[in-house]
Amino acid sequence: FQPALYEAFGLTVIEAMNCGLPTFATNQGGPAEIIVDGVSGFHINPMNGREAGTKIADFFQKCKEDPGYWNKMSTAGLQRIYECYTWKIYATKVLNMGSMYGFWRTLNKEERVAKQRYMQMFYNLQFRNLVKTVPRVGEQPPRPATTTGAAAERNQIVARPRERQVCALLRNLLRKDRGSN
Asked: Are 28 and 6 in contact (CB under 8 A)?
C-alpha cells in the first residue's frame, strides 16, 4: 500500500511490484500510469478513505475465496514491470532521446532546409489525408458512411491512438519548421 496523495513518478510502486507484491497506490501522478487498475495492481483515491478501505478489503476477500488470486495479481504486476519499467528499457529511452536531440542540434541551416523539404514531402505523401480525419480537441469524430458489409469496412477509417500522436507530432514539427525560416 502506497499512501501518498501524489507522487510524480512512483519508484516505490515499481519497487513493490518488482518484489511481487500486489500493489495499491494513488490514482494520481506516476502510479496512475504504472498500474493498470485491477490488472497489475489497484488505484485508490487517497482523498476517500472509505473507498480505499473497501477496495483493500475486497482484495483480501478475493484472496480468501481464490487462493491463486494473490499470485495472479503478483504475476501481472511483475509482467507490467518487465514490459515497461526495467533499467534496460529506461536507458534505451534516455539514449534515444539524447541521440535525437544531438542529431537535430548538429544540423546546419542547409541541412535543416533539406530536412524540412523531406519532412514536407513525407507529410504530403503519407499523412495529409490521415491528419484531416483526426478530430481536434472538442470536435466530434467524423461519422462513417452508412454503407453495409465489406464496402463499409473498406470506407471506414479508424484513427488509432498511436496515429493521432504521430499526426500531432508531424503538425507541430511542420509548424516549428515553417516558423524557423
From this structure: yes
Helices (H), the chain: 11-18, 29-34, 49-65, 69-84, 87-106, 109-122, 128-133, 149-155, 161-180
75 shares a domain with 32: yes
CATH at residue 37 = 3.40.50.2000
Number of compact structural domains in the chain: 2
Cα–Cα distance measured from residue 98 to residue 170, given in angstroms and rounded to the nearest whole number:
20
Residue with cell 496515429: 163
pLDDT tens for 97-118 read: 877 776 666 667 777 777 778 7
C-beta of residue 45 within 8 angstroms of C-beta of residue 100:
no
